[in-house]
Amino acid sequence: MNRVVLIFLITVIFFGCKKEEELPPTADFDFVLADLGMVNFVSKSQHGTSFMWEFGDKKISTAESPAHVFDTAGTYTVKLTVSNSKGSAVAEKTVTTATEPYRTVYIKGVAFTKHPPGNIVYVIKSGQTTLRHSADEPFNNSVRDAPVQWAVNPVYKISPVDKDLTLFCVDKISPTASFNLGSMDFNLANYAQGSNRYPASVSFTSPDQETSATIELMWEK
To answer: What is the DSSP secondary structure assignment for residue 155, as one 8-state letter?
Structure first.
């Protein structure tokens, strides 16, 4: 009797611990049109371990449910390939976008909440274009924490928005001499994507923690 019970227990343990077999994947997805060329894709696939999206505009994504911005209004064939160790499955749908993303951004002003002491002049540079705060009117700042406002007039135009932007901090030592105190670099294209794209302002701090600024932006098609 004990032998029968032992065999039964071994059988239960063996089959109970047997790893569940992986199933072949299925592919399906929905999408929601947002504004300014953005489309939110939601995968309804099952059993997938990897995802490959081809949006029909020569761009791809490996996220499970990505958001994608189409640069030009039109009709696109979107393809989703879902894979696992058992194989792959494909789903395709047609997406039509009627609006396009912003291609131009304007800098309206810069607010500095912290910058080094000295006769400070700020310079914005993007590509070959440079905007300089008046050298005759530097920020005569004797302390590190003194908010100052630079109203950019006329506004500084950047197009296309994927250009790199550099904000230089210069100490105006004399009418003919200056010293570069450092710079902050960022790419505005990073703010033209995702659910929080096209912000009215962008805040950042320099790597040396000496300068903190908020740039006021205006976006345009």
So the answer is: E
Q: Look at residue 191 and give its three-state secondary structure.
A: helix
pTM for this predicted structure:
0.58
Residues in the chain, how many?
221
Q: Note whether 220 and 106 are within 8 A (CB).
A: yes
Which residue carries 């790597």 as its tokens? 207
Domains of the chain: 23-97 (2.60.40.10), 104-220 (2.60.40.150)
Strand pairing class (118-126; 129-132): antiparallel
pLDDT tens, 95-150?
999 887 888 888 888 887 776 666 666 777 776 666 666 544 545 444 444 566 77
List Cα–Cα distances, 43 to 13, 18, 91, in angstroms. Answer: 37, 30, 10
Task: Say if residues 97 and 73 touch (Cβ distance below 8 Å).
Answer: yes
User: Residue 161's pLDDT band (boundaries 50, 70, 90)?
Assistant: confident
Burial label for 143, CB within 10 Å (0-12, 13-18, 19+), is exposed
Percent of the chain scored above 70 by pLDDT? 67
